[in-house]
Amino acid sequence: MIIDAHTHITKLENTPFAKKSYEEIRSALLAEMKKNKVDHALVIANWRGEDGTGPSTDTLIKLTEELSNLHVIGSLNVSEYTKQDLDRLEVLIRLKKIVGVKLYLGYQHFYPGDSVARPIYEMCDRLGVPVIFHTGDTLAYKTFAKVKYAHPLGVDEVAVDFPNLKIVIAHLGNPWMMDCAEVLYRNPNVYADISGLFLHDGFNSPYGKMTIQKIKELIAYSQTPRKLIFGTDWPLAGPKEYIKYVKKLGISKTDMEYVMYKNAAKLFKINV
pTM (2 decimals)? Predict the structure, then answer.
């Protein structure tokens, strides 16, 4: 069983799909999943709505509603959202149209503990769905992203103030993986996905090899690999390469089940 807990339907210029339709990109994702025996995938909405690079939450729901193996993560613009926007997300959660909410730290200019985001945490906490934070490098939109907002240590404040809220730190806070490890270690409600650490075959590069060692150190510091979640950041990286990558981490077969699907299944209530 494999759940890819971090994918996108995106037309970013640094992907093969810049000129493709959303339907074509969705078909490519499904084909990639089938080829690599990925059973389920979480697909993450664009926080900026229909800006031409990726689908809004509502559009993504329409693209996936007849597919039982694709599960939508909603989003919204933290800087500009209204009560109606938040109410809409609540309706979608209650209808089980979305299984979590992602906030794009760095791309969106707010710190995790800022008051503007707290109504979102309160809603997700009350409804029992996870919040995913983009953390670390902001490669996709260099022109306006500000990496200072994307440091994983800021997530600790939310984890402490909302101890029952399930939180996922996307990308292990890369390059601040040891700071991510501290947040994982001290907060039972926090997990981290390993997505987006390299592009496709980049795991064979010196950088890719370095990140393997850094993840091993994170596991040693946080004292368990069972806080990690498999994800790729497709189409920036693919499941074939990422499955090979995870096997290099030296995780036991029992613990690997938590990484590859059990954590995601439990957090996002995916029936496996």
Answer: 0.96
